[in-house]
User: Fold this.
Amino acid sequence: MFTVEGACWVFGDNVDTDQILPGYAMAEPAERLGSFAFAGSSVPDFAKRVKPGDIVVAGQNFGCGSSREQAPVALLQAGVRLVIGASFARIFRRNAINIGLPVLVADIAGQVRSGEVLGVDIARAQIRCDGKSFQGAPLSESSLTTLRAGGLINRVRQELARRS
Assistant:
C-alpha cells in the first residue's frame, strides 16, 4: 500500500470535479462511478484505458469545484492508486484520504510524461521516474494512519474495536 508503481497520466492545472466525474454520472449506481472517471476531461476515454495501479499527476488546484465526494471514489474504482499534484482543493484532498486514495503534493507535472512509469514511496513522499528522483511533501501521521486503515470508516472501526 505504501509503495506504488504504475504508469502516469499527466493533467494540467485546475482540473475540477466536473472533469473528474461529470454531473450526469451522479445518477448512476455508486458501484459504476469508476466507468465515468475523467469523462468530462481532455481524456474522455480514460476509464477504458486506465490500468489498475496507474497514477494521476496534475498541476495546481486538482479537484477544485464542487465538494463532490464521488470524484475520488470514481478514480479509485477506475484503478487509480495515487494522485500527485502541485496542489489540491482542500475538500478533494480530504475526501480522497477519507476513502483511502493517497494524494501527494509534488510539482512534477512538467517533468514527467503520460505513460512513464513512476515508483512512489507514499510514506516518504519519494517519487522515482526514469532515473530521476523527486521529493514531495510528506503526509501527516494522521493521514498516513487513515490510509493504512483503508480509509476513515475503516480507521474508526479499528479504533472502536481496540477500545472494546
